Amino acid sequence: MTTLAALRDVIGDCRRCKLASHRTNIVFGVGNPRARLVFVGEAPGADEDLRGEPFVGRAGQLLTEIITKGMGLSRDAVYIANVIKCRPPGNRNPEPDEVDTCEPFLIQQLAVIRP
Question: Which of 16, 52, 54, 63 has its CA 20 to 30 A from that of 32?
Fold first, then answer.
């Protein structure tokens, strides 16, 4: 992949694992596609699933505060993604097969961004 948009198109309406039937939105990632710094979470939560954007709930508010107040950067200066792109039911930890299915997309995101 040469762009994040192209990678997102490849993911499409992903049905590659059992999480697809539980999600509202795929949570691909947001931020600067040329970021020097990338934050990677484990999996989207309920707020992220509803908005289709990583780290928008309480953990996201804390992360934004760390980025802006602690690091002196804007949230738009970094890139934020998750290992898996769909919320596990009940916010449980991702299972190994789910990580195995989705992790290649994270690796490709990082290859495009080159933080």
Answer: 16
